[in-house]
Amino acid sequence: MNLKNTHKSKINEYKLSTDVYIAQIDNFTDSTDTILKGIDKRYIQFYFCTKGSVTFNFNNGIYKINLHEAKSFLFYYPTLDIPLSLNINAESKVYIVVLSIQKMHQLFAEYQIQNDLISSLTQDKFYIEREILPAIKLVLNQIEQTKLTPQLQNLFLIGKMYELFTLYFSEIENESGHCPFLNNENEGKRIKEIKDYLLADFKNPPTIKELCEKFSISEYHLKEGFKELYNSTIYGYLLDKKLEFALHRLEENKLKVKDIAFEIGYENPSHFISAFKKKYSLTPKQYTKQFK
């Protein structure tokens, strides 16, 4: 795309191949910066706004979309190339990942991955806005922080691109609710209700027995159905959500690590630190340094 630094924005570009491109745009001023680019119909494009907000102006401003902090936007327009300007609003940051649709299909075919979203990318324009997962935000932070030689940096970024897409599309699969194990739709709804019930108060989770009694479901169907729907055990899923919540609290930089540990139900902060490092490969203290 050949973006260049402006007097308002710092732009880091990484052209990994003719099929893959990554960029990070950071507007460090108190006014909007406009970046001009085009949308090539051969490419699927991902935008991740990690700070502030971004406005997409398609086809000379005829159509606009606002993307706010902690949101991602996937865009694909296969029928024609159209002009696009990005308004990077004050104190805002956005990451752009561009991949040829041919390369995307090739990756999914190579690893025999079935995904309804990719299969639907045919002749119609397509876009989707989603929340940015904490795990994806961590990948984006790692991309920004990398300081390697050009050769190793490309290898590192290709790995991060695979990681990012894996996280992005696995979450879409989880949201689909497809569960061949469950006998009927009502059982699936019941397990989703149990998931919501657990997340409402994850500091003091009930036992499996208590859940079964409350929702009138057998332990076998609860465990197996939950694993099919969410690709995790009940308490493994709950632990992931607790650590994601802790990640957001650390980003706010208002509480001490021990206070966050207590808030999510840990009696011993060192156990929280160990669990956090196991999931994110950083201690809570190391993670907060990225936001200072």
Q: Quick recap of the structure?
A:
The chain is α+β, with helices and mostly antiparallel strands. The chain has eleven helices and ten strands.
User: Count the strands?
Assistant: 10
Low-confidence stretches: 177-181
- The N- to C-terminal Cα distance equals 31 Å
Compute the gyration radius: what is it? 21 Å
- Give the structural class: alpha+beta
Strand fraction? 15-25%
- What order do the strands of the largest sheet run in, or round the barrel if closed? 1-2-9-4-7-10
* Helical run tally: 11
Helix content: 40-55%
Order of helices and strands: EEEEEEEEEHHEHHHHHHHHH
| Chain oligomer state | single chain
The averaged pLDDT comes out at: 83
Biggest β-sheet description: 6 strands, antiparallel
Overall 3D form = globular
Structural features:
alpha+beta; six-stranded antiparallel β-sheet; 292 residues; 11 helices
Describe this structure in words.
The chain is of the alpha+beta class and 292 residues long. It contains eleven helices and ten strands. It has helices at residues 101-110, 116-119, 134-145, 150-176, 185-200, 208-215, 219-230, 234-252, 257-263, 269-280, 284-288, and strands at 9-15, 20-27, 33-39, 43-51, 53-58, 63-68, 71-76, 82-88, 92-100, 126-131. The strands form two sheets. The protein has a six-stranded antiparallel β-sheet with strand order 1-2-9-4-7-10. β1 and β2 form a beta hairpin. It is globular. The two termini are 31 Å apart. Residues 177-181 have low confidence and may be disordered.
